């Protein structure tokens, strides 16, 4: 298979070979990195999956994290703009959903096509005040409790002083960015929303609000689990794989068996 040159450091796992039919760019949650989506590269043979790596995260720990939504969106758009030479999807998880929505506005303003669909997971619609609005300025002890409540990090890591010295500045930057306002005009592509049945941060009822932010179709799907249901819901990857194929009008025989 012909390999596309990697666009480091934003795409540490690349975004598929040169002969893929389409691509999907994945935008992580606050504090998360590209590795959370690395396994998805095998979900569909015709779709090149490109997990985005934010500055200050995982392989980019030596870089300062970005606190500005405008700066983050602009930099991601610079990276993928030249790679939108075929249909594509955007997938945003939690904070990544907000970034993805803002990214579409940026790309369309540049005269580039909107994605075939935006898939958003575990985040309220963009007109709702972010749960992270005040978290960036909390004292360390209170910020740790916020993170415990989200459930994305093992408790033992939050009790590790060295780990917290590394991760808390990154979380503050991510929460500050997530609190920034974004363009609220509807986007001209379908939105597929994923919600965790036990997610108190972005319930299915909350996520129904995404319907007003598209001029196209809207679909809401609920999964067993809390805020990080992507790690625990047994049917999550199968559902995502099917939605990827349907959004890009790929036939069922392209699907990889589980």
From TrEMBL:
Pfam families: Thioesterase (PF00975). InterPro entries: AB_hydrolase_fold, TEII, Thioesterase. It comes from the Bacteria. Residues 24-232 form the Thioesterase domain. Belongs to the thioesterase family. This is Thioesterase domain-containing protein. The lineage of its organism: Bacteria, Pseudomonadati, Pseudomonadota, Betaproteobacteria, Burkholderiales.
């Amino acid at each position: 298979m012909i390999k596309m040159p990697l666009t480091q450091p934003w795409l540490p796992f690349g975004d598929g070979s040169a002969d893929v039919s389409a691509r999907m760019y994945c935008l992580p949650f606050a504090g998360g990195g590209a590795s959370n989506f690395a396994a998805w590269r095998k979900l569909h043979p015709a779709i090149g999956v490109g997990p985005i790596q934010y500055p200050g995260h995982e392989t980019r720990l030596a870089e300062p994290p970005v606190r500005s939504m405008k700066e983050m969106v602009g930099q991601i758009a610079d990276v993928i703009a030249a790679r939108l030479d075929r249909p594509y999807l955007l997938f945003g998880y939690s904070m990544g959903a907000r970034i993805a929505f803002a990214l579409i506005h940026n790309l369309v303003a540049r005269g580039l096509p909107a994605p075939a669909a935006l898939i958003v997971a575990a985040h309220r619609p963009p007109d709702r005040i972010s749960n992270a609005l005040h978290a960036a300025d909390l004292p360390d002890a209170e910020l740790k409790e916020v993170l415990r409540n989200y459930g994305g990090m093992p408790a033992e890591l939050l009790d590790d002083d060295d780990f917290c010295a590394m991760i808390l500045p990154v979380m503050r930057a991510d929460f500050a960015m997530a609190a920034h306002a974004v363009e609220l005009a509807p986007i001209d592509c379908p939105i597929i929303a994923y919600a965790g049945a036990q997610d108190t941060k972005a319930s299915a009822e909350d996520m129904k609000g995404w319907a007003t932010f598209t001029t196209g179709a809207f679909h809401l799907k609920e999964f067993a689990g809390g805020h990080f249901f992507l790690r625990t819901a047994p049917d999550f990857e199968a559902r995502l794989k099917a939605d990827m194929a349907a959004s890009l009008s790929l036939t069922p025989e392209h699907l990889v068996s589980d």
